[in-house]
């Protein structure tokens, strides 16, 4: 998918009601997004699939729902107050702010026009998660200069953070034409601050949580005391997190308010390596099972110098988004760092007593930490297809039936002869189990197209024959196959298709 197609996706999301810019009627607000009628169902289905597969169907997992604002000591213990910061750079001219670790400097050398022996250098700053993402903008600037000076002699790229301080003055910022407008990198804490109670004083400062994980650690003892759990076990939480990102961008990928789906899996220290390997694979397979193609996904193990000092291993699950390969989820072996920190700061005993071995120890932790919004974006990118049907370009969202916002749409072929009544009764029957949509407006072909864009896997049409033999037509979104089934148990037929129990006639697999 090219960058143009990312624009198409963003526009489809707006047009069909998947995702809107937040408070758009007031000009929006950077880094905040709203999910529309289809988007809210899609994101909920993703979170439900995660909860179902991770919590409900396992005997070694329990759930939790913590408050967003916690005692600020939590964030001192976790290291977020002292260390949760990104290096930022200001442009003195435009007042824009950039993440210094995402600012790449492309150095191009040209022959001076009137003095071929003399060389001219341009140090263009360009933004991107990686140099490849930033390259396009620098190349466009180089192409403009090449019109006057001829082709560049050579070029190289380096990170703004890696430049010697005296070289930073040579850099031309992303939105200006002159060098020397960028500041030195400075540390910027990403936590949103607020005040609890009536007084806006330093002693009342609190933070909107930047991750859901710490609420799990803070409740470790509470959960153990309920007596439902025995190590190895995990605690899972889905909820909002907030980070005052310097450069929110790439649609919902980097937002300032987002949802996380996090697991802290507690185990014996000697078993932690094995559990790390288990979760690393299990989490990768989960995305593949729900339709992300494995050639677009990759598991990237962190290099030793990338690891946090307490972590012995960390891997990122990355997806090839149209704007570059970027992180969907991180799986970290965190050792006993978090529980030890919270013991130190709270003074409470968070060790675990193992009844079997009669041993007391601090559990080790494996943390698979996923973003619901990034997962939603990846599934949307993967689903977006254009094909030609009856000489017309069709946009179709090939979402996995489990994730599709609407599972079935029901149409009367025409608005008479009792067809609307029959269609409505079928719609009401399906609605008891799944999200269904009733549509009687316009030509049936147009109704199909609308559902293709919404990602609805099955459309059911009631026609003249229905009134004589009580059968209806099911149309499959992806293969466009149509077949007749009795209307009597249509809800079960659709359920079996969605769950993969049955397949589209003549197809290898419905999913
Ligand atoms: P990045 O390096 O992209 O900023 P991170 O390594 O800081 O991410 P974590 O702190 O490991 O991310 O958070 C776990 C998950 O939460 C990420 O894999 C991602 O899915 C999600 N996430 C983190 N920051 C954001 C954000 N600003 N917008 C949307 N999702 C996010």
Q: What does it look like?
A:
This protein is an alpha+beta fold and 511 residues long. The chain folds into 3 domains: 3-69 and 198-380, 2-Layer Sandwich (BirA Bifunctional Protein, domain 2), CATH 3.30.930; 85-188, no CATH class; 406-499, Rossmann fold (3-Layer(aba) Sandwich), CATH 3.40.50. It is 30% helix and 30% strand. The chain has 14 helices and 27 strands. A 7-stranded mixed beta sheet has the order 3-13-14-20-17-16-15. Strands 24-23-25-26-27 form a 5-stranded mixed beta sheet, with helices on both faces. Strands 8-6-7-9 form a 4-stranded mixed beta sheet, covered by helices on one side. Helix 2 (37-56) crosses helix 10. It is globular, with a radius of gyration of 27 Å. The chain starts with a helix and ends in a 12-residue tail after the last helix. Adenosine-5'-triphosphate binds at residues 211, 243, 245, 254-255, 258, 260, 327-330, 369-371, 373-374.
